[in-house]
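One such given next:

>
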Amino acid sequence: MKTTTLKLVTIVTERILEERVLRKITEIGARGYTLTKATGKGSRGVRASEWEGPDTRIETLVSSDVADGIIEYISDNLFEHYAVIVYVQEAHVVRGDKYI
């Protein structure tokens, strides 16, 4: 079976940032995403946004250029003031042309 090598970008963030992050990753070039609720424990302690429910986990399959753009945006705009985790994995995707 033929696969396309893409980047799986996973973003775990405070729910208050959900719409902002989704809008921005779409502007950068993501064609879609998977959104799930997330809970866990981290180094930031109690946050004001815990009133709004669980954190958000966003996953998107993108090209390397789009992955770099997403990471740059989050690094430059969100890391300093919010609880945000971003990691990238290589993914071998069936029907990969749907994502680039």
Summary: DSSP finds two helices and four strands in the chain. The chain has a mean pLDDT of 90.
